[in-house]
Amino acid sequence: MRLGVDVGGTFTDLLLHDDAAQRTYRAKTPSTPEDQSIGVAEGVRLICEKAGVAPSDISLVLHGTTVATNAVLEGKGARVGLLTTAGFEHVLHLAKSWTPGPLFGWIVMDKPDPLAALSDTRGIPERMDARGNVLTELDEATATAMIDDLCGSGIEALTISLMHSYANPAHERRLREIVQERFPDMHVSLSSDILPEFREYDRAITTVMNDYVRPIMTRYLGRIEKRLGETGVDSRLHIVRSDGGLMSAEAAAARPVHTVLSGPAGGVTATAMIARRTKLPRLLAFDMGGTSTDVSVIIDGEPTITRSTDVGYFPAKVPTLDVRSVGAGGGSIAEVSELTNSLRVGPRSAGAMPGPVAYGRGGTEPTVSDANVVLGYLPPKLLGGDMSLDLDGAREAVSKVGNPIGLSPEAAAQGILDIANEVMLGALRVITVQRGLDPRDFGIVAFGGAGPLHANAMAQVLGCYPVVVPHNPGVLSALGFLEAEFKNENVRTLIGSIAGIDDAHLFAVFRELRGQAVDWLNEEEVAEADRGLTYSVDLRYEQQGFEVTIDVPADLVESGKGLDAVLEDFHATHDRLYGVRFDLPIELVALRVVATGATPAVNEAPPSAGTTDVSEAVMETRKGFFKGEWQDTPHIDRDRLAAGARVEGPAIIRQYDTTTVLLADHHAIVDDQGNLLIWPNEKGE
């Protein structure tokens, strides 16, 4: 029994998979922003009750969390002290000397305060060069006095990020020893541990971010493990990494910066799984929740991994799934702008409390979910009848923004949905059109609590077909956590021309990194049969500023026979990504070894019960607003549909964890895996 837990801004989603019976159970419970562990514990009780099992039967808990992300975005992290090389105290202020352009962008830029204040920064007398040679010995007496002053000032965590420590971490490690001798309870992170790569600002800000969220993450993980224990769960807790891998709770507490995109990672992993199983190689992941929408691209059944992401204004150089997020969700608030007297939606959100007006929890401002209620796209009850909606309250709230600009409730609701859809379309265009990809070559996978409500409208504009609505769309991110594998990356910066690097030394470094990877696999207790190791190098043309990661075959590392095939792969990859290849010397930048630990696949038995006669699955007929008029619209119970069933639009397809809107001139087919595939009538199956 494996449990996936996804804490969102509005709902906490849970999915329990019984490996033996090949069955899944799902549950949604309101999130508790004041203490997310409360909502998680309540969800565990609810899903165990649904499955008829005891919490002690759960063998593994896999959790995606936004704790680290929210702490940075809201500026509510810990007070961090920074030890850096003397003369580089302003590293976080200078950053990359970048301001938005053109001139007006620079004038209006509101530059955020660094995550570690200058008053909490100390310059340590020491210096390494880029080869790791000591230029200035560490002045331990002065360093000790600075540490006493800084750690005694009330900081909650300490970052040590010295120049060129990626090449020689000796001074950083000695400073940590001094801190631990004098302040044993202090959270300390070394840049040579968190990001042993060149580029001093990236290394410093990533390590500072790790400490900025570390005390908060440590407290949160302690609370959630305590709550789970009180509920009766005695299995190990694992946290989902930003790159879709898994790490232990202990590792997440030490390196929380690797969880900054933990939440969206599950949905991307699940979308890649769907691509492989449906044989649809090119898909767009469309995850619309209550607070935000996350989109990403799947090509040839694999997600894109990027080596850097932005959390608000701050870069974090950690491996992440390439996800674009926008502030549009079911809880996004609609209002009339005082300046333009026009309708706008988001990024403000009603969140879980008070939530949309229709939820009846005290919300007073109209949201996207309220607009869906007004147009008849949401039924009077959600979550299998456990949650009643205030239909009249939603209509009254939407009228408040429609009346001042002369719109009927229906027109205002349609306007709210159109604006929200346009915001989300902008994100989809960024990851397709702006990268040279034609969205018409992709299908779109709709998930999240609100994704299936809007995906058909998205596909209609972009031409992305089919729309795939998985069997468990509302809790698909939690399912993705169950599909994730344990993962950790070991890297070594090794800059120089390929022509001048000794191959024997290069492969010796690979083997050293492999030893570190094996040690990590041992710590995570990954069985031998489940282990995997992959090797890669970061390469660039001479004088380029950025690198391309190229895989290195394992047998090449073992034999040490040279890199000719890898270099040719680099030329071809550069040509594919950027449309050009150069006859220039190639530089090596870094070597990487990624360790993985496989987890069992989620094999759910395909739907066998149900009917292909859609009329037998109709729950009721209600009014729905389509093509500018009210129409009698069938509400269909998805759980009664068997593989092969075909639903003609317009229709509302209901299930426990979400509602799917099928537009007019479209149809939906249930495939043999239980997915709904939506096509326009003029094409498709």
UniProtKB/TrEMBL annotation:
Q: What is its EC number?
A: 3.5.2.14
Q: Which residues form the Hydantoinase/oxoprolinase N-terminal domain?
A: 2-182
Indicate whether Amino-acid biosynthesis appears among the record's keywords. no
* Hydantoinase A/oxoprolinase domain ranges (all copies): 203-489
Q: What GO terms describe the biological role, i.e. biological process, of this protein? A: glutathione metabolic process
Picking any one GO molecular function of the record gives: N-methylhydantoinase (ATP-hydrolyzing) activity
List, alphabetically, the GO terms of the cellular component aspect: cytosol
InterPro entries in alphabetical order: ACX-like_C (IPR049517), ATPase_NBD (IPR043129), Hydant_A_N (IPR008040), Hydantoinase_A (IPR002821), Oxoprolinase-like (IPR045079)
Residues annotated as domain Acetophenone carboxylase-like C-terminal: 506-672
Q: Which SUPFAM superfamilies match?
A: Actin-like ATPase domain
Q: Keyword set for this entry? A: Hydrolase
Q: Which PANTHER family match?
A: 5-OXOPROLINASE RELATED, HYPOTHETICAL 5-OXOPROLINASE (EUROFUNG)-RELATED
Identify this protein by name: N-methylhydantoinase (ATP-hydrolyzing) A 2
Query: What lineage is on file?
Result: Bacteria, Pseudomonadati, Pseudomonadota, Alphaproteobacteria, Rhodobacterales
